[in-house]
Write a structure and sequence with these properties.
alpha/beta, Arc Repressor Mutant, subunit A, 3-stranded antiparallel sheet, 5 helices
């Protein structure tokens, strides 16, 4: 039985996990849920999976080391691009840098504005309008309180919201670090 290590324990967010397909399907599913990159080595006579995502690729065994490295690097680069900007998914989870935080429904329109305009000023009036559109008070005190809550919530995943006095707010997206990019072979 395979268990997925914690993020700090065994690999970095860019390490592409190399898995035998279909023998390691359970681990593949765990890694997919965690949005970690995977490279499947297809066992002889096996077809590729019918469904996959942008953080996965496959190669048939036997393979050349050059083909292997190209596919591994491609999946790793996809992961870097995916995690380089925050994104709000259909379940109101804000995802960034391999982490996520739940966004309350009333705050979703405001967080969506900040994410869509990351690095740009979003005026207080625009934020108040979005908040009021979610059925909440557009009153300055209510908006200010909501923004303090958003700032705290987003800080848990490494994002900073700056208040620009009398103008609005700006979501700062820090550059991702250059943790080692490599492949780990899992039970090959």
């Amino acid at each position: 039985m395979h268990t997925m290590p914690s993020r700090d324990q065994a690999w970095s967010r860019y390490d592409v996990q190399v898995l035998r397909w279909p023998a390691q399907e359970a681990l593949r599913q765990q890694l997919a849920v965690a949005e970690l990159p995977r490279l499947l080595v297809l066992e002889r006579g096996c077809d590729a999976p019918e469904e996959w995502d942008c953080l996965e690729d496959w190669i048939r065994s036997p393979y050349s080391i050059i083909d292997f490295e190209i596919r591994r690097a491609t999946v790793s680069e996809r992961a870097r691009r995916l995690w380089s900007r925050p994104r709000l998914d259909a379940d109101d989870l804000l995802r960034f840098d391999g982490q996520w935080v739940d966004i309350p429904r009333s705050q979703v329109p405001v967080v969506r504005l900040l994410v869509e305009r990351a690095g740009e000023l979003v005026t207080t009036a625009t934020i108040a309008e979005a908040y009021a559109g979610a059925g909440c008070s557009g009153d300055w005190t209510a908006v200010k309180t909501m923004m303090i809550r958003i700032e705290r919530r987003l800080a848990t995943i490494g994002l900073t919201v700056h208040r620009l006095r009398r103008r609005g707010y700006l979501l700062e997206v820090p550059p991702l670090d250059d943790e080692g990019v490599g492949a780990k072979v899992s039970d090959m």
